[in-house]
Amino acid sequence: MPGLLQGKIVLVTGGGSGIGRATALRVAGEGAKVMIADYIPEGGERTVRMVKEAGGEAGFIEADVSIAGQAEAMVSETVKRHGRVDCAFNNAGIEGKMANTAECSEELFDRVIAINLKGVWLCMKYEIQAMLKTGGGNIVNTASIAGLVGFEGLPAYNASKGGVVQLTRTAALEFATKKIRVNCVCPGVIRTPMVERLLDNRSITEEELTSGEPIGRMGRPEEIAEGVLWLMSDASSFVTGHPLVIDGAWVAR
Ligand code: NAP
Questions:
Q1: How far is the CA of 21 from the centre of ligand 1 (A)?
Q2: Which of the ends of the chain has fewer CB neighbours closer than 10 A, N or C?
Q3: Which of 194, 203, 220, 245 to mutate to test the pocket of ligand 1 (most atoms within 8 A of CB)?
Q4: pTM for the full model?
Q5: Would you state the pLDDT for residue 202?
Q6: Residue 75: pLDDT above 90?
Q7: Any catalytic annotation for residue 126?
Q8: 3-state secondary structure 40-68
Q9: Would you say the CB of residue 190 lies under 6 angstroms from ligand 1?
């Protein structure tokens, strides 16, 4: 039986780790040819090997999504290799150091916004240009529950993720009649290297993170990948401009 994304060309940013890696593996398992982009080759190339070992097709592109020329080259390289981009998962992101609004440095604020918010816009910009030339496409961005509710100590991160939700809605409206759907996922606390870093540097304790999750545990990257797959597939054909919350009921409180 053909997979849900059989033969589709899927670009995944931040595909060298965590949620991006889990999603690359999941969509490849549904027949997609995956282009994995990351700014450090080691993780991305490892994901490529993992996809291939599981019987899928994948390639790696080195790109820093916060730099326009690299985001553009990432999309044009995908089109060069495969002729089009059918789906894109704009997922690369950083947490940045924890510092409250009065103590956050300008440098930290700019860096987080450059990757998490401007990076998503840059990727969408060049992906949409490519998708318009081939008759449409499907974009999923990674926002966060931090884009929906406040979290102390992460002003730039929260602002960036709120911005991703709004970028998603804006592009969904702009291209609704052009066969391009644009959605985002809003993960809760997911056990990935990003969360492990926060635990390692004692920014927050495991108990604080888990107790915030009404479901009583952190999520797994694979549980976000399921949502991304659904948004990319025709099963969600009437869904666009939607922030899909996958969070164990964190924001339900
Ligand atoms: P992760 O394991 O740290 O993965 C993030 C990936 O993005 C890494 O491969 C990282 O590369 C890459 N990346 C960072 N900056 C980049 C840049 N400028 N250009 C290209 N790639 C870049 O974290 P994750 O938890 O999977 O996070 C994925 C996304 O989910 C992020 O947008 C994050 O904000 C979001 N999110 C995570 C959680 C959570 O609880 N984990 C919750 C809500 C939202 P390197 O590893 O080489 O630095």
A1: 10
A2: N
A3: 194
A4: 0.98
A5: 83
A6: yes
A7: no
A8: CHHHHHHHHHHHHHCCCEEEEEECCCCCH
A9: yes
